[in-house]
Structure formats: structure tokens, C-alpha cells
Amino acid sequence: MFDSIQRGLSDALKKLRGRGRLTADNIREGLREVRRALLEADVNFTVVTKFIQRVEERSVGQDVLARVDPSEQIVKIVFDELVALMGPVDPKISFAKDRPTILMMCGLQGAGKTTTTGKLGLTLQSQGRRPLLVAADLQRPAAVDQLKIIGQQLGLPVYSEMTDPVQVCRNAVTFAKQNNLDTIILDTAGRLQIDAALMEELQQIDRLVKPDQLFLVVDAMIGQEAANVAKTFNDTLSLNAVILTKLDGDARGGAALSIKEVTGVPIKFVGMGEKLDKLEPFEPEGMASRILG
Ligand code: GDP
């Protein structure tokens, strides 16, 4: 595993060492190789700097200098640190006992909210829940129809009405109770960029509908920007988990690391394709491998 990064690191260390013993400075230099790999994987710049500092301290502390092949040990430290940072992961969702559980999906437009609402509905249905999908994205006119089609495909009920988002969500709760549906998934509006109006709308739903859990849907392809997006949403809404989408593409997954490091909010699921059965639990080990390339 990580042959290329280990080879690069190994070569760098050999060159630096020259004839003498490897020094802590050599390790610092050698870690540039790891730093380059993380930046290439689109990990946020500040996150990379802090991460490399930690690995450097651990590497020197663990006396990798004495090893025949220190690069192997350093790469292991890097891998372990990545896994520790992105975990622990709990793909389970906790549910209320005597009333419907409300899950609120939020995120930027195009992140994959509507699709993920369907995917989550399907996952929960397969676990024996009775989900209701709620079309609370009244900003993007096509979103309501899109969710209705997804509901039809999955055989899941969809609640919609063209009033205002809070009204839609409130009435959806009543509808769920009347129809014995136990899990309400709110597909809320997004914008192309974060703006005050979007945040105000989401805060209003949060305040008045009181969802049990808030999930942020983030497109893994936005790379470095993911950390800023996650931070802004978390500062305003206090997120429970993140769902990272489009990991079937060629995004290296640096977003996963940045989001967790900057917000502390765990990533619960990943989207692995456009199809509705392509939602998987997040696995830090797999992501660490992907990030290291
Ligand atoms: P929304 O604006 O956040 O509701 O985003 P949509 O759910 O409409 O998704 C935007 C686009 O991303 C659509 O074309 C989806 O099919 C696509 N999409 C969503 N999730 C994934 C994923 O995990 N992988 C891929 N490849 N495409 C996805």
C-alpha cells in the first residue's frame, strides 16, 4: 500500500541522509513528500500544516531515526493519524421512540441533497423504518418534482406543498403522524454559495420544526472549499453528521479529512454514485488509503 508515497519518502530521506545519520531535520524535509500528497488530495492547506506537524512530532518521538527503513514507519504513522483523525465512525442513526424522528438534510445546491434524501430513505426502509421524504426545497423549482420521481422509484411517500419551507415541514410532521410514518427526511433548499438568506431559512426550520438530527451533504469534488462550507453550516446550525457525495468520481477525498479536522463533525455516509442504492457507511481506513494515493 502507498507504494508511490513510500518510495518518494524513502528516496527523499536517502538523499537527505547522505552518508551520515538521519536527523530530525531530515524527517521534516522528507515529510514534504507526504505534504505534497495531501495537498494533491485536496486537503485544506491549514489542515495539512497542522497534520504534518503532528506526524513530525510522533515520528521523532517514536525514534524512527534508528530504523533501517524509516520511511515505512513514517508512512504507517501518517496512515494511523489519518484514520484516527477521521474516525471513529458510527453509521447508525438514533431514533425517537414515541414520535416520528426528523432528519434534516442541508447543503449547497448541487451537492446531492435531493438524491441523498432518496438514498437515505431507501437505506432506512431496508432497515425496517417507514420514511417520509419531504420536499422543502422551494428555491429550486425542479427539486420538488425530482423528489417525487425518486419517491415513486423507491415506493416511498413524498410530502409537498407550494407554501413556504417551514409550513411544508410542519405539515409533513402531521402527515407522518397521521400515516404512521416514523422517519421524516427534510430535503431543504441550497444556494450556489452560502448566503445569509439561505442560513436564515435553515435556522428557521431548525428553530420551528426542531429536527432530531442535521446532516450536511457535501460534494467531495469541491475539495479545499469543503472545510469552509462545513464550518459555516456547523457554526450556524450545529450539525450531527456529514454525508460526502460523489466519491465515485476522481476526487481524492481530502474533503473528508478537512471537514473532520475543522468542524469535529463525523462523516457518517458517502455517496458512491447517482443511483439510489449508492450510499455507503463511511470508512476511515479506505479514505486514508485513497488520500495517500
Ligand atoms: P441538490 O441540489 O443538492 O439537491 O443536488 P442533487 O441531488 O440534485 O444532485 C446534483 C447532481 O449530483 C445530480 O446529477 C445527482 O445525480 C448527482 N449526484 C448526487 N450524488 C451523487 C454521487 O454520490 N455520485 C455521483 N456521481 N453523482 C451524484
Structural features:
293 residues, alpha/beta, eight-stranded mixed sheet, 52% helix, elongated, binds guanosine-5'-diphosphate
Write down the overall mean pLDDT: 90
Distinct compounds present: guanosine-5'-diphosphate
Global outline: elongated
Distance between the termini: 9 Å
Q: How are strands sequenced across the largest beta sheet?
A: 3-2-4-1-5-6-7-8
Our count of helices gives 12
Using the CA coordinates, give the radius of gyration: 22 Å
Secondary structural class = alpha/beta
Give helix % range: 40-55%
The proportion of residues in beta strands is 5-15%
What is the β-strand count?
Answer: 8
- Poorly predicted sequence stretches spanning 5 or more consecutive residues: none
User: In this structure, how is the largest beta sheet organized?
Assistant: 8 strands, mixed
Order of SSEs, N→C? Answer: HHHHHEHEHEHEHEHEHEEH
Question: How does this structure look, described?
Answer:
The protein is an alpha/beta fold and 293 residues long. Helix content is 52%, strand content 14%. It is built from twelve helices and eight strands. The protein has an eight-stranded mixed sheet, with helices on both faces. The longest helix has 17 residues, at 45-61. It is elongated. 46% of the residues are buried. The structure holds guanosine-5'-diphosphate. Guanosine-5'-diphosphate binds at residues 107, 109-115, 143, 190, 245-246, 248-249, 271-274, 278. Belongs to the GTP-binding SRP family. SRP54 subfamily.
